[in-house]
């Protein structure tokens, strides 16, 4: 009897709140992220010493290749996390259906 009352009290305190889903705020967040990513493309450089060493030789194609390689190395973890996040979202969506 006591444990049943205690369980009910705990459930009442720990009742999950329903989150109101707002499509406009999600769309706005996505748009904001996209805009920031598009305008930050001109800033793809690495540390100042490496950049100075690569551009001082006069071989700008090598400097551009190193910059592109750094951008690709940086993008892979984000793509992996996004893929895992999407898989978790799909699993939760299928589970709730």
Q: Any overview of this molecule?
A:
With 97 residues, this protein is an all-alpha fold. The protein has one domain (17-96). Helix content is 77%, strand content 0%. The protein is elongated. The mean pLDDT is 76. Keywords: Membrane, Signal, Transmembrane, Transmembrane helix. This is Adenylosuccinate synthetase.
Describe the secondary structure blueprint for this structure.
Elements: H1 2-13, H2 23-39, H3 48-56, H4 60-96
Transmembrane segments: 69-89
Signal peptide: 1-45
Protein name: Adenylosuccinate synthetase
User: What is the overall number of helices?
Assistant: 4
Distance between the termini: 35 Å
Biggest sheet architecture? none
Uncertain runs with pLDDT below 50, 5 residues or more?
none
Protein name: Adenylosuccinate synthetase
Transmembrane segments: 69-89
Keywords: Membrane, Signal, Transmembrane, Transmembrane helix
Signal peptide: 1-45
Summarize the structure.
Keywords: Membrane, Signal, Transmembrane, Transmembrane helix. The chain has 97 residues and is mainly alpha-helical.
